[in-house]
């Protein structure tokens, strides 16, 4: 069994969004960064939500029909966010990916975002270990 921790595989150079960012800008930033998702920080720099590319689809479809983008990140983001800790064991987090449909989890410590861990990061490490 591994004693590897999330901190050893998490991505620390990540896109960070704010709730008041226009959704069109946020969608463009996600695409430009080739990011599946981004944490959304509140005024206190604590995790306030999480925005995925999928969350942007409703606004994008609306804009493609009406030629008008509406709303901001706060309108589309998930507010109930499942997070992991930097010290969490990779096997534990692998189990979380099996139990949830998510492809990425924010890594937080005391409410502060430290990075992201993707399902592919965990899978790659399990392949290396096995």
UniProtKB/TrEMBL annotation:
Keyword Translocase belongs to the record: no
The keyword Transcription appears for this protein: no
SUPFAM superfamilies (UniProt xref): CBS-domain pair
Highest taxon above the source species: Bacteria
Span of domain CBS: 10-68, 77-130
PROSITE patterns: CBS
Keyword list, A-Z: CBS domain
Protein's name in the database: CBS domain-containing protein
Organism: Marivita lacus
Lineage: Bacteria, Pseudomonadati, Pseudomonadota, Alphaproteobacteria, Rhodobacterales
